[in-house]
Amino acid sequence: MVFFKNRISSLYFLVILCLFAGLVACTRDKGKNIPDVSHINVDLNIKRFDQDLMSIDSNDIKPGMDQLMAEYPVFMPDIYLAKILPVLADTNVMRQFLTSPGIQSLYDTCQIVFGNAEDIEKELESAFRYYKHYFPDRKVPEIISFFSEYTLGTFTYEQDILGIGWDFYLGADYPNYDPSFFPNYIKRSMNKEHLVAKAIEAVATDIVGSSRGERLIDIMITNGKILYVVDHLLPHTPDSIKLAYTDAQVEWCENNEKELWSYFLVDDLLYSSNSRDIRKLVSHSPFGTSQMPPEAPGRSANWMGWQIVKSYMQRHPETTISELLEIEEAQAILDKARYKPRQ
Question: Contact 179/158 with Cβ under 8 angstroms?
Answer without folding.
Answer: no
